[in-house]
Write a structure and sequence with these properties.
This protein is of the alpha+beta class and 128 residues long. It has two helices and eight strands. Strands 1, 2, 3, 4, 5, 6, 7 and 8 form an eight-stranded antiparallel beta sheet that branches. The N and C termini lie far apart (28 Å).
């Protein structure tokens, strides 16, 4: 299952964004308003949103061109990638891409909430 967020322009350099996204605690500010709990860990974070089970993510890779977050749970196989394309020294184009391997039943249940989550994350990133 593949989902895409809209492309946005962030008024920060790609290296500035990469620096922010290396810090697990920094992701708390990007979470939707429905955030109920957030726990930063050494290599990632765990969060819970209203009406959804808790999700643990591991920060797999952060460069000036992308950030890759992977599920920390062996029962869920997915990655959330943020592509970052520097437009100039102060602006970066960002797009979130979700790639998950789910059975058809799970896909049907999670597709809409995940798309809403990606849209919300995109909105928060755009405000940076």
């Amino acid at each position: 299952m593949n989902l895409e967020g809209r492309k946005i322009i962030v008024n920060k350099s790609s290296s500035e964004l990469a620096g922010m996204l290396k810090n697990p605690q920094g992701y708390k500010d990007l979470m939707p308003d429905s955030l109920q709990n957030f726990e930063a860990r050494e290599d990632g974070f765990k969060f819970g949103l209203k009406g959804m089970p808790e999700i643990a993510l591991k920060i797999e890779n952060v460069t000036d061109s992308e950030v890759v977050l992977k599920s920390a749970s062996s029962s869920l196989d997915f990655a959330l990638t943020g592509t970052m394309n520097a437009l100039n020294e102060k602006q970066t184009e960002v797009q979130l891409l979700f790639d998950g391997k789910f059975n058809p039943f799970i896909k049907m249940m999670v597709e809409k909430p995940l798309q809403n989550f990606i849209n919300s994350l995109t909105d928060k990133i755009e405000q940076l």
